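In response to the reviewer comment on reproducibility (Comment 2.3), we provide here a single inverse folding case reported in full, input and output, so that an independent group could reproduce the run without further information from us. The structure tokens appear first.
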């Protein structure tokens, strides 16, 4: 066997392997011995047909393919051992010739991560402030949630709620046809077509109207772009929104335990503060991780990016399934092919792989470990609020070797990010202290 190392780039080594005739003959003989025991050949007992007879009976193509399936994997393993290569995934193999047997293998290599001086990283932590104006906006949203709708005897205005009968066609085919539809007039609404709400402004109860609208070139549903829709609308009722006053009674309506308006505002302020702190913390952590990657050298084979893309697509498919949609329906509505989505996800997947590898290396540098007791504690935390009749079942499921390994990975990442945040904050405090001294 002759092995040629053509090149190494992008953490992949390109090998060309040429087999000698003795190795090919040995593999062919192995295939013959296996097949002759499996194939029924008229006139011969199983396992007794001569090799030339077997070759004519099953065909030369079958024998060659079986021989390659037997020979190439063993030759590949021998080649990477000879070249002292550490492969992290299955190679891409292409058979170039069959006489003599010659193939090329692209071998994905172990990632290389050289961390930069992450102890000197500077990341600005944004202050969290909840203003009274923000609280006021939440109060206003609550007023809309608890508003009532009262019938009015006047022409329709923006923000009114209308009861409609709608008939429509596109190219003579039915589009939207519905009786007793409830439709709120919202400026610049794209539903059911851009300009529909504006056409209804000024209509009175009992009015009928016909009008045409054209879908613009940038419309989200590509199959409707440029098409004209003919609408016929009749209005049966117009209602306006009646907002409640902000009183202690209103506060109690929002939540029974709340004693009054001031307590409601305090509760809103506290919730907003907590959510803002969570967002700020996650943003700070993400920027710290990105900073580590930026100062480091992280190299990895493309197969890791492909694996991450497929994982992202599977996650998206599961999310869509929970919403009652198929992956194919999503692609049609987005006007994309699976290949286009794959390409679109490539930068995100590449970034995530680099960040994951950098964090893994950081956990080694900082000697961060996850003990079995940590995993047990996490399982207990996850199951503590579970109903008693399901707790044992969930505990058993989480205690499988595969799930424990998954939990271990999650905990290791969490601990590593916490350590990174601690390092970055210490670095920022040191920098600020030095500036004050100067």
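Designed residues, in position order:
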């Amino acid at each position: 066997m002759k092995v040629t190392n053509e090149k190494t780039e992008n953490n992949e080594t390109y090998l060309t392997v040429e087999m000698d005739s003795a190795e090919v003959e040995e593999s062919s003989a192995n295939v013959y011995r296996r097949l002759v025991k499996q194939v029924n050949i008229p006139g011969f007992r199983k396992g007794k047909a001569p090799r030339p007879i077997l070759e004519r009976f099953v065909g030369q193509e079958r024998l060659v393919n079986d021989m390659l399936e037997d020979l190439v994997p063993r030759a590949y393993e021998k080649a990477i051992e000879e070249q002292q290569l550490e492969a992290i995934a299955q190679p891409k193999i292409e058979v170039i010739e069959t006489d003599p047997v010659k193939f090329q293998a692209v071998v994905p290599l172990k990632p290389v991560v050289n961390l930069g001086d992450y102890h000197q990283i500077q990341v600005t932590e944004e202050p969290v402030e909840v203003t009274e104006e923000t609280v006021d906006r939440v109060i206003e949203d609550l007023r809309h949630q608890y508003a009532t709708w009262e019938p009015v005897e006047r022409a329709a205005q923006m923000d009114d709620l209308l009861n409609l009968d709608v008939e429509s066609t596109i190219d003579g085919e039915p589009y939207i046809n519905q009786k007793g539809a409830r439709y709120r007039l919202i400026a610049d609404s794209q539903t059911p077509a851009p300009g529909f709400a504006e056409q209804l402004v000024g209509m009175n109860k009992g009015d009928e109207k016909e009008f045409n609208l054209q879908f613009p070139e940038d419309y989200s549903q590509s199959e409707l772009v440029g098409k004209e829709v003919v609408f016929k609308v009749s209005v049966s009722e117009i209602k306006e929104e009646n907002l409640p006053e902000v009183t202690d009674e209103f506060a109690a309506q929002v939540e029974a335990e709340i004693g009054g308006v001031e307590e409601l505002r305090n509760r809103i302020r506290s919730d907003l503060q907590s959510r803002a702190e969570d967002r700020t913390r996650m943003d700070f952590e993400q920027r710290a991780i990105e900073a580590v990657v930026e100062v480091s050298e992280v190299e990895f084979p493309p197969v890791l990016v492909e694996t991450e893309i497929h994982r992202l697509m599977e996650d998206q498919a599961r999310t869509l399934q929970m919403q009652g949609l198929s992956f194919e329906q999503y692609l049609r509505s987005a006007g994309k092919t699976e290949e286009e989505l794959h390409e679109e996800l490539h930068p995100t997947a590449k970034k995530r792989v680099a960040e994951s590898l950098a964090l893994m290396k950081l956990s080694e540098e900082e000697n961060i470990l996850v003990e079995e007791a940590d995993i047990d504690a996490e399982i207990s935390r996850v199951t503590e609020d579970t109903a008693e009749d399901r707790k044992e079942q969930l505990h058993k499921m989480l205690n499988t070797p595969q799930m424990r390994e998954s939990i271990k990975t999650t905990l290791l990442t969490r601990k590593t990010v916490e350590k990174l945040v601690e390092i970055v904050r210490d670095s920022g405090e040191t920098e600020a202290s030095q500036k004050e001294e100067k």
